[in-house]
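Ops channel
N.P.: pipeline sanity check, posting one input/output pair.
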């Protein structure tokens, strides 16, 4: 089921593998981007994670209130600059998963 038009939230998960010696630079760019994203309407979460078994790699989780909010986020100056930095900072193309969010609580 598509998230578009049905009121469901959209999330993205990206796996980012930095070039050797560029880990700190990648984290700096991600932190600047996080600071910008926190003020975007419709961006609910923007979190980075260390990835077990992949030293130096970063997992990036983004949660949006709608498909439209995710699309708007992708065109912001901060995201455009982040994506432009990938050729210099990453050893490979990011692996990105787009997720239709179905948040269900665990039964007690």
């Amino acid at each position: 089921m598509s998230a578009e038009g049905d009121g469901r939230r959209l999330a993205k998960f990206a796996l980012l593998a930095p070039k050797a010696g560029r880990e700190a630079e990648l984290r700096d760019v991600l932190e600047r981007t996080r600071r910008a994203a926190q003020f975007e309407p419709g961006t609910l979460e923007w979190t980075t994670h260390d990835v077990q078994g992949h030293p130096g790699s970063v997992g990036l989780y983004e949660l949006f209130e709608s498909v439209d909010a995710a699309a708007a986020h992708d065109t912001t100056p901060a995201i455009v600059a982040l994506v432009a930095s990938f050729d210099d900072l990453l050893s490979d193309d990011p692996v990105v998963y787009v997720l239709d969010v179905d948040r269900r609580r665990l039964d007690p």
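N.P.: looks fine end to end. Residues 10-100 form a domain with the Alpha-Beta Plaits fold (CATH 3.30.70.100).
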